[in-house]
Amino acid sequence: MGYDIERFVGYVNEGLLCSICRDVLEDPLQAPCEHAFCTACIHGWLVHHSNCPEDRQVIDVSLLRPLYRYMKNDLNRLQLHCRNRDYGCEMVCSLESIDRHERECEYSQIPCSNAGCTVQIERRNLDGHLAVCEYRSRECPNGCGYTILSAEDTQHNCVAELRTELELLRSEMICRVEEAKHEMESRLDSQRRHMVQKESILQNEIEELKSQMSRMMSDVRSLMAAERQHRQELEQAELEKREL
């Protein structure tokens, strides 16, 4: 749907009206036949039809294009009243800036931000309403630190609330202790497995060193025996030389 033409100040060119809703174009699109429509209007029309509502020429969603720039500029320059005019807003601004104004308008009806409250209030009066809203929250005046709603004042019990809070904290602490315990056990198991694996590797290395040392001792004994044999042969050769 377009902008209500009654909101506009002065004359509005016929070419800036939607061919379907007959209000001023909102988020406009243009067909190849140059008739313009609000995006929502033409999309709704094409669900049940396949032609232009003005001249019945065949059109498709894929054929729709943005409004010509000069028409878009004319549209944006139109002056209109804020939609909150009936609530007291006297602002008149261009169509191009109306959305920005209405998002911030002090006369806009907005919901109360307190959970459970269904009141719609003007933005300018929101602070005053929040100060007296029966659903407003505040800290307990008795010092327990609990946040309460005004509607719950008669049911609030500091001792009960603190006991509940204490139980929650105790449960949370037990859970954290259990988590820390499991984490420590997991780390110890991991370290234990690592140490066992390391011990096995070291044991294998020791056995290998022992084996190497045994082979070296055997080689040394063999060398010493060979040396004694060689010395005896030299001594025998020396005796034979003397006899000759």
Describe what this molecule looks like in 3D:
This protein is mainly alpha-helical and 244 residues long. It is 50% helix and 11% strand. It contains five helices and nine strands; from the N terminus they run ββαβαββαββαββα. The protein has helices spanning 39-48, 69-77, 95-104, 126-132, 158-243; strands at 28-30, 36-38, 65-66, 79-81, 92-94, 109-111, 120-122, 137-139, 147-149. Strands 2-1-3 form a three-stranded antiparallel sheet. A hairpin with a 7-residue loop joins strand 8 and strand 9. 11% of the residues are buried. The mean pLDDT is 87.
CATH class of the domain at 5-104: Alpha Beta
Shape: elongated
Structural class call reads mainly alpha
What gyration radius follows from the Cα positions, in whole Å?
Answer: 47 Å
Percent of residues in helices comes to 40-55%
Spatial strand arrangement across the major sheet: 2-1-3
Query: What is the CATH topology assignment of the domain at 5-104?
Result: Herpes Virus-1
Q: In DSSP terms, counting alpha (H) and pi (I) runs of 4 or more, how many helices? A: 5
Query: Could you tell me the strand content as a percent range?
Result: 5-15%
Biggest β-sheet description: 3 strands, antiparallel
Task: Please tell me the overall pLDDT.
Answer: 87
CATH architecture of the domain at 5-104, by name, is: 2-Layer Sandwich
Number of DSSP-assigned strands: 9
Distance between the termini: 139 Å
Oligomer: single chain
Order of helices and strands: EEHEHEEHEEHEEH
Domain RING-type: 18-56
Keywords: Coiled coil, Ligase, Metal-binding, Zinc, Zinc-finger
Domain TRAF-type: 101-144
Organism: Certhia brachydactyla
